[in-house]
Amino acid sequence: MVLFPEKFTSPNISIGYYGGSFYVDYANDIKKTRCLIIRLFPFVVLTFLPIICILIFNSYIEILTKISLINGMLSCRDIFSFFVILKQIPKGASIRNKGDVTYWR
């Protein structure tokens, strides 16, 4: 939500729960670069940050390990869509999602 172009209170930003996981959706166009960052941000924060914390504090923290593993498995759709957007959408394009469909111009 922090990475979207509008404020959190915008009517264009919605939070939902679907298929066993939470999601945040933005109803307007966003640039390709920002879209790619938005796709990877939850994966990086919730998968790699807990691992880094475990390494820094040099101790096994079970909840961080579980968060990291579960998010790593549940992020496959975000990672897949990241690579589809990266390879198939031209540089500088604007992107809009409507449900499971992604449009660009």
TrEMBL record:
Pfam families: DUF3267. The chain crosses the membrane at residues 40-61, 67-86. The keyword Membrane applies. Keywords: Membrane, Transmembrane, Transmembrane helix. InterPro entries: DUF3267. This is Uncharacterized protein. It comes from Acetobacterium paludosum.
